[in-house]
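agent> Task received from the user: take the single chain below, predict its 3D structure, and emit structure tokens. No templates, no multimer pairing.
agent> Plan: (1) validate residues, (2) run structure prediction, (3) serialize to tokens, (4) report one or two observations.
agent> Step 1 OK, no nonstandard residues flagged.
tool_call: predict_structure(input=
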Amino acid sequence: MELARKMPQRIYISQELAKLLGVLSHPDRIRLVGELRQEERDVNTLRERLGLTQARVSQQLALLRAHRLVRIRRDGRHIFYRLSQPTLVDWLIDGLRFVEGEPTTTADLRIALMQARDLWTAGRQPAEAAEQEAPEAAAERAAASAD
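)
tool_result: status=success, residues=147
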């Protein structure tokens, strides 16, 4: 009986989590989240850093904002975007471990994963960044450094 009462809540939460994952399922949006990891930025800065058109950046930011993943701050005519919950980047970094663990992960992809982790953990305390790194990635990084 208890399980029957909890089931609708589990369905509701599953649907909400699926929406969040859907919003994050686009590479441009993941890159935007990564760029907003430490500080707010305006559309022009994001456009330059990501090599996307202004319209594309604006469209993706609007979707992230509609799902409450980013917030805005107005300064005159400028609009600055920031993450609503900066820990979202930590979640993405954790997600890198799933990609790394795939048997079909190529050497090129492993290098790209290391670069993404380095970028997304830049500016963190060393212990905090080390916690995020999977043991396999640390061993691979050490092997790559030795070459």
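agent> Step 4: summary for the user.
Residues 126-135, 141-147 have pLDDT under 50 and may be disordered.
agent> Done.
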